[in-house]
TrEMBL record:
GO terms for molecular function: alkanesulfonate monooxygenase activity. The keyword Oxidoreductase applies. InterPro entries: DMSO2_SphG, Luciferase-like_dom, Luciferase-like_sf, SsuD_RutA_monooxygenase. CDD domains: Alkanesulfonate_monoxygenase (cd01094). One of its GO terms (biological process) is alkanesulfonate catabolic process. It holds the Pfam family Bac_luciferase. Residues 8-325 form the Luciferase-like domain. It comes from the Bacteria. This is Dimethyl sulfone monooxygenase SfnG. Keywords: Flavoprotein, FMN, Monooxygenase, Oxidoreductase.
Amino acid sequence: MSQDNIKFAYWVPNVSGGLVVSNIEQRTSWDFEYNKKLAQIAEKSGFDYALSQIRFTAGYGAEFQHESVSFSHGLLAATTKLKVIAAILPGPWDPALAAKQIATIDHLTGGGRVAVNVVSGWFKGEFLAIGQTWLEHDERYRRSEEFIRALKGIWSQDSYTASGDFYRFHHYSLRPKPLKQPEVFQGGSSRAARDMASRVSDWYFTNGNTVEGIKAQVDDIRAKAAANNHSVKVGVNAFVIARETEEEARAVLAEIIAQANPEAVNAFGHEVKQAGKASPEGEGNWAKSTFEDLVQYNDGFKTNLIGTPRQIAERIIALKAVGVDLILTGFLHFQEEVAYFGEHVLPLVRELEADQVALAA
Ligand SMILES: Cc1cc2nc3c(=O)[nH]c(=O)nc-3n(C[C@H](O)[C@H](O)[C@H](O)COP(=O)(O)O)c2cc1C
């Protein structure tokens, strides 16, 4: 097991409707003031990263969305330690613009705190609404890989030159370069996504899953990355419901699902068929998701971080044991529950990690 502490991120609710497609009461808001306070609570509570979301259009309770790069900059300016991951979608974004924007944010925020999550797109309606060409599943990943190679090339080299199928550069020197090379995350877990991660990404983000399901992905990626002489870390999504008793936590989950909005969940389920299921292997995110899974739009219930702080901490250690480096968390009432997680779950995780290190010594 890794000797490094497992890292924690939270989903930035820069999209309306919270992280579950349910009519249950959610004291979570998508506005900036709420998010600014949340980021400050999160960094005080021991969270390492915040992950913003990019959507240009959406229903499913997510009618309103703030843009991810400018929102991330706002959160970085309001905090001092937290790293913020700006979601970027190739197609609407061009790598030259993204590289320049992120380099400037890196300077404005002291260096080393801004990162990117290159997402490849699952929502055809969104692409068509903004006049973007919709590519087939694996073509989207070919484009994302060129995009990531371009970001890294522009950030690290002078006279960067590349001639790809999607992007071309001729002796381009970005000035100034970022103070520190921003980390590159990716979202997606199909075979094309895993192959891309094993070649170019620093981090691979995947939807919620069982420990066995995660292990299969980690083993595949690590083996492929080793063959490519590349190293990649893994982050897993989880919707956390931490309560004093397991019964209480399970009751909250039951209520979220009982109050799910079936029309919205089914419409979302229909749209995501353009993702994992549309890959040649029919694997990847949402390929096997049930109605209940889709109530949390990145399968976060499957990871089962639902119960008492101790149960949750032990399950996090089990994920770490199969090679997970980061837990990406979502909550019903973000501000209160991020603080609760920092106070009651995170210290237990650190204790268990210290026990493991002592055992190994
Ligand atoms: C943690 C995580 C965050 C994501 N964030 C976004 C996002 O902000 N916007 C977006 O359009 N897609 C987002 N995605 C979707 C992915 O980019 C990808 O399209 C989707 O997971 C399907 O990938 P697959 O077919 O390779 O499994 C995210 C995925 C994950 C796992």
